[in-house]
Specification:
The complex is a heterodimer of chains A (472) and B (307). Helix content of chain A is 28%, strand content 21%. Chain A has 472 residues and is α+β, with helices and mostly antiparallel strands. Chain A has a 6-stranded antiparallel β-sheet. A 6-stranded antiparallel β-sheet of chain A has the order 15-14-23-22-19-20. A 4-stranded antiparallel β-sheet of chain A has the order 16-17-18-21. In chain A, a hairpin with a 6-residue loop joins strand 12 and strand 13. In chain A, helix 3 runs antiparallel to helix 5 and helix 3 runs antiparallel to helix 11. Chain A starts with 11 loop residues before the first strand and ends with a strand. With 307 residues, chain B is α+β, with helices and mostly antiparallel strands. Chain B has a 6-stranded antiparallel β-sheet with strand order 1-4-5-6-7-10. Chain B has a 6-stranded antiparallel β-sheet with strand order 2-3-12-11-8-9. Classes of the chains: A alpha+beta (472), B alpha+beta (307). The interface between A and B is large, with 45 and 45 residues.
């Protein structure tokens, strides 16, 4: 017996605003808000229909959807509502959106270690997440209900998709059916002092980033493992009224319990200090001062990219390690903009000497390896950033053009192996520009598009928009 | 409020006077176990409130192999803890439309960890009170060797390894938890049968990457809370007429999952055509016969039927 708010396979669905008629293919799933169906569309676009249960099909939800559909999606990372759907013989309403491709997986698979993405992939996913929320917030919108359950990533490359976008509202509107979920909810919401807004989104974002990078909730330490019964007051205390970061340097009362939070302890020892300092700020000042203490999207973007650029592979076991781009060390590495100078060799010598201090922890973190990794080739670009040079490293406009930050659309350079001497590595010019390359011996050559030069410490490269030097 | 512990075969029927849920269960020793004298490692327990319409039913399957030599105790602890913990939560704080979002992540993330945590505490207490005996140690040494013995001595919870399946019914929501083998079947008003966490539908990337001496997902694995599958459903999403919880001895008695799924309709037909009294008289024989002709394993079945 059909009820009035459900669809059967084959039923037609008129999507008036798109001027198409689709047919229900099958039910994909159901949950607390409604049911989701895959649609057969006339042009084979993969669409899905989310249809709300009557109790959830509120006027407020309808208005939110209507407003979202009128706006453009901040980016293709959002599974954005395309069209409102109402049919005469069905109770309530729903909306159509593009189907998430099967290559995108839930982060829960990573949390349970069913998949084993690389650090590079995870950091790419984190960066994309932050970038997406930056775009969303810059449009004056707020997500409200950010949690690990509504974000997905491609374990091959870190590309993300953000689902459940039907709760996104204009910041400050105080609308919507949801107020977030406790584990990802900002403390001020839990204690009843605020409703979801872009500031609370920032807090949820920090929780997600920590979860992805440390496989643990930032507030779940000894205090959480001492809770013996499930009740909302104890949860409210843990996440809202008395939140204590598990690595709070001034309060160790909630330090991770090795029996239950082993991942947090392991990963905390792997990452370099500069990223840990940001997380400490996010969960100390970020809790006590919601307005000014939270880590901004741009800060996360810079830090996450610096962390990704610092990845190198252990020479013995191949594990990914981080070349410690500690900010204290970075400060010492102030690289002169004018790399040519009167005596380029001297300049290079000085820089190379300083470069030897870069690695604060050269031991491979892999407990079965623990190899000492030294002389990791890297390229420093102006005084802005440096990138570890691995066999698979690519440089993008983001790296060499200060006006094209975060442009990863096309690689402009890649590390390549010498065609006849596999022991010699080079950097191949993938851009259309010609680079001027100053060798360590003082010779200057031009490297045209598709040409490579040898990666020898001391080599300087004028990319046109910035200058780099190869170091180790 | 009624609480039943059915670690052995039992015959009881409880009906809720307000929401009309009929709850019933049966556990039979596997045909092959009967022959070898090996006891039933399954446990089942449930608790029902007449006032709040809350029902919590839990089924556990102790692994029963040599290294899990206390798995009967482990499965008993598992169902007791699951029923107590989840009943306390959902009886005292019913999920309603206006708070489902607040408890959603507690259900998904906190509840599994707490269940595992409390189970481990109970196991640890039991080991302290009842240290491994010389005969238990000698048996493992003889059958598995010193390396495995050392692993178990260093990590005693392995001896208690068990799966855990739990269904929670509240006024408007249904919540399901599953760790390890076993099945939760839902038969809806339209006679559709759904396997809540079908193994065959799992993602292609859902391959186990954990190297372990334990070959199924189990409470005794490190970080086992991460392996829990959870589901939260609005009443309208499921419209269940019958909910079945079974240990894998049942499913393994069929050559295909589709064959197994038919039991959902069979039991519904039995209840609707012949009534509860017929089912209660015959269920034990049905399960014993299934084990005999099928897996030979213990079979435990819990039924929650909307009258």
């Amino acid at each position: 017996m059909n009820t009035t708010h459900e669809f059967q396979a084959g039923e037609p669905v008129h999507i008036n605003s798109l001027n198409i008629v689709c047919n229900i293919e099958k039910e994909l799933g159901s949950g607390t808000q409604g049911k989701v169906y895959s649609l057969i569309s006339p042009d084979n676009t993969q669409l899905v229909l989310k249809w709300y249960f009557p109790s959830m099909a509120t006027k407020e939800q309808y208005d939110i959807l209507k407003s979202l559909i009128q706006k453009d999606s901040p980016s293709n990372r959002f599974l954005w509502p395309l069209a409102l759907v109402k049919t005469p013989n069905k109770e309530g309403f729903g909306y159509a959106m593009v189907m998430k491709e099967s290559r995108f997986k839930s982060f829960s698979l990573w949390l349970s270690r069913k998949i084993d993405p690389s650090f590079k992939v995870l950091l790419t996913a984190c960066f994309e997440l932050v970038q997406s929320f930056h775009l969303l917030h810059s449009k004056g919108l707020c997500y409200q209900d950010l949690s690990l359950n509504n974000i997905y990533f491609d374990p091959e490359n870190g590309e993300i998709r953000i689902g459940d976008t039907d709760n996104i509202v204009v910041n400050g509107q105080d609308k919507g059916n949801v107020i977030g979920t406790p584990k990802f909810m900002a403390p001020e919401i839990i204690v009843g002092k605020a409703l979801p807004n872009t500031q609370t989104d920032l807090y949820s974002l920090a929780i997600i980033l920590f979860y992805i990078l440390f496989l643990n909730h930032p507030l779940e330490g000894k205090i959480e493992s001492s809770i013996k019964s499930l009740d909302l007051p104890s949860m409210s205390k843990l996440y809202g009224f008395e939140p204590i970061f598990i690595f709070d340097p001034s309060n160790d009362s909630n330090y991770p319990d090795p029996a239950f939070h082993e991942n947090a302890i392991i990963f905390w020892s792997i990452y370099p200090d500069f990223i840990k300092r940001i997380f400490i700020r996010a969960f100390t000042n970020g809790i006590t001062d919601p307005m000014h203490g939270r880590v901004r999207e741009t800060e996360w973007q810079i830090a996450l990219l610096a962390l990704r650029d610092s990845l190198y592979y252990c020479k013995r076991c191949g594990s990914e390690n981080f070349l410690a781009t500690d900010s204290f060390v970075l400060e010492k590495l102030k690289i002169p903009v004018d790399l040519g100078g009167v005596n380029p060799d001297n300049n290079v010598w000085k820089q190379s000497n300083m470069a030897k201090g870069v690695q604060s922890n050269p031991l491979c973190w892999n407990p079965k390896c623990k190899t000492m990794n030294t002389h990791i080739l890297n390229i420093r670009i102006d005084d802005r950033l440096f990138v570890a040079l691995n066999h698979d490293t690519k440089l993008f406009l983001h790296h060499i053009d200060p006006d094209r930050k975060y442009d990863f659309s096309n690689p402009i350079a890649e590390v390549s192996r010498h065609p006849t001497d596999p022991g010699v590595w080079g950097l191949k010019n993938l851009s259309a520009c010609t680079w001027k390359v100053g060798k360590a011996n003082g010779d200057v050559i031009e490297v045209y598009s598709k040409q490579s030069f040898s990666l020898v410490p001391g080599t300087q490269i004028d990319f046109g928009t910035s200058k780099g030097v190869v170091c180790y | 409020m009624i609480e039943i512990n059915t670690t052995q075969i039992f015959d009881k029927c409880i009906t809720s006077n307000s929401k009309k849920w009929l709850v019933y269960s049966k556990s039979v020793e596997g045909a092959s176990h009967s022959r070898t004298g090996f006891s039933n490692q399954d446990s089942i327990r449930w608790k029902q409130s007449h006032t709040s319409n809350t029902v919590v039913m839990s089924v556990a399957d102790g692994h029963g192999s040599d290294i899990h030599f206390r798995s009967k105790v482990g499965s008993q602890f598992a169902v007791k803890i699951a029923v107590e913990t989840l009943f306390d939560l959902f009886h005292n704080q019913p999920i309603e439309i206006d708070n489902v979002f607040q408890v959603r992540d507690i259900i998904r993330y906190s509840a599994p960890r707490l269940l595992v945590h409390n189970w481990m505490d109970r196991v640890q207490y039991h080991v302290q009170k009842h240290p491994f005996s010389n005969s238990e140690i000698d048996l493992i040494l003889k059958k598995k060797g010193p390396i495995i013995l050392e692993k178990i001595v260093n990590n005693p919870k392995i001896a208690y390894g068990s799966t855990l399946l739990t269904a929670v019914i509240t006024k408007n929501y249904f919540i399901f938890f599953q760790l390890g083998d076993g099945n939760i079947l839902i038969v809806d008003n339209d006679q559709n049968v759904r396997c809540m966490f079908s193994n065959k539908n799992s993602d292609s990337d859902d391959n186990s990457s954990i190297e372990s001496i334990i070959h199924t997902e189990s409470l005794c694995m490190d970080n086992s809370w991460l392996e829990f599958k959870t589901g939260i459903f609005d009443f309208q999403a499921l419209k269940p007429k019958l909910i079945l919880l079974s240990t894998d001895g049942y499913c393994n008695s069929f050559s295909s999952e589709s064959g197994f799924l038919k039991i959902g309709l069979d039991y519904l037909a039995l209840l609707e055509k012949f009534g509860f009294s017929y089912l209660s008289k015959n269920l034990c024989n049905i399960l014993k016969q299934t084990s005999l002709e099928g897996s030979g394993d213990d079979i435990t079945l819990g039924l929650i039927y909307q009258m």
